[in-house]
Automatic annotation (TrEMBL):
Pfam families to which the protein is assigned, alphabetical: PspB
Organism: Shewanella fidelis
Keyword annotations from UniProtKB, A to Z: Membrane, Transmembrane, Transmembrane helix
Name of the protein in question: Envelope stress response membrane protein PspB
Domain of life (superkingdom): Bacteria
GO aspect biological process, one term: phage shock
InterPro entries referenced in this protein's UniProt entry, alphabetically: Phageshock_PspB
Transmembrane segments: 6-24
Length: 77
């Protein structure tokens, strides 16, 4: 009786969920192995440029804080 209760979900999983899961898994593996598209490469370069700009801004803000409030790094609020 207990095995009958478990068999139905297992059968449904094997017939419906497992094939979809495998298809999506191998499709994503294939996309990863193909590398970046032109659009993705362009977006990556834009993000790198933004990160560099943000890093420069943070360095500038830290330099300003170092001059105006030298103890700001030691605060643990």
């Amino acid at each position: 009786m207990n095995t009958d209760i478990l068999m139905a979900p297992i059968i449904i999983f094997m017939i419906v969920v497992a094939p979809i899961w495998l298809i999506l898994h191998y499709r994503s593996k294939r996309q990863v192995s193909q590398g970046l598209t032109e659009e993705e490469f362009s977006q990556l370069n834009e993000l790198i440029a933004k990160a560099d700009k943000m890093s420069h801004r943070i360095d500038t803000l830290e330099a300003i804080l170092d001059n105006e409030a030298p103890q700001w790094r030691n605060r643990h609020d």
